[in-house]
Design goal:
single chain, alpha/beta, OB fold (Dihydrolipoamide Acetyltransferase, E2P), Rossmann fold, 2 domains, six-stranded mixed sheet, 17 strands, 26% helix, globular
Length: 311
Amino acid sequence: MQEVKKVITEVGTNEWQVVVFFLGGQSFAINVDKTREILRWPGCRVIPDSPRSLIGITSVRGEVLPMVDLRVFLDIEPSVDLDQSKVIIAEFNEVKLGFVVDAVERIYRINSEDLDSSLTGKYLGEWILYVIKRDSRNVLLLDYEAIVQTISPQLSMQSRWDPSRAAALMEGVTDPAAIRIVVAEDSPLIRKQIKDSLAMGGFTNLLLCSDGREAYDAIMKEGAHFDVLVTDVEMPRLDGLALTRRIKENPATKDLPIIVFSSIMAEDIKVKAASVGARYQITKPEISQLVEYVARIVREGQEAAQASGVA
């Protein structure tokens, strides 16, 4: 077993860390904050009638975990036999599982500006979010949330959302369609799920941004007005904590309510988010809580405006 040790970085500096690993002859990366430990191949037991990439379950110190072979999922020829492979134990979106890989290299410290999304989608396929240029090679960062939801649709955020709750959550909110919300989220799948869920609450006036820099530029544009910012943490160019810090340090935008909505809301990330001024921190599966918090922020703002008008 190899415990993943993180280097402490200053909050909101746009720096984070990734574990670099190999599938075939290609380098890939996963955020350290999604990673718990790295194991030698522990063996596994097959799950009947499961997707081909969900190769089985294993037990790690008494905890039963599903095992996803990323080589099978991405259709990459392994460079080592299964019993020589490594397993990255990951935890995000309140799910813990093992990713089977050929080998693990080391932890690298990167800046969000190092992430290049220009080839995403049309050239690199739907599972690759970014290219990280490192040591004269290209390291690929995968959309792990989309991969897990594809393998197990029951883990989708939408499965946590009961549309019948919308009316109760929205009680007391006036004209939700007039509320201007900016969403900063790099995963196309998660952006759509956020959009669909907020729409169920009547919040349809959204600006959807693929990274923190795009959101920041929109918020700072002359004459722009937004009522709420919803932001992921792990994003290119400008990550969510750096975005929040910049918004809160600017006198013109410091009162903008911010919700950090991330797959990696471990206790230390929640503390970091709060320290840079994010009022709410939510783990991504709890999509109904996102609608609830947006409604609460809007309701409080409308009540304050009414009280001020009466005064």
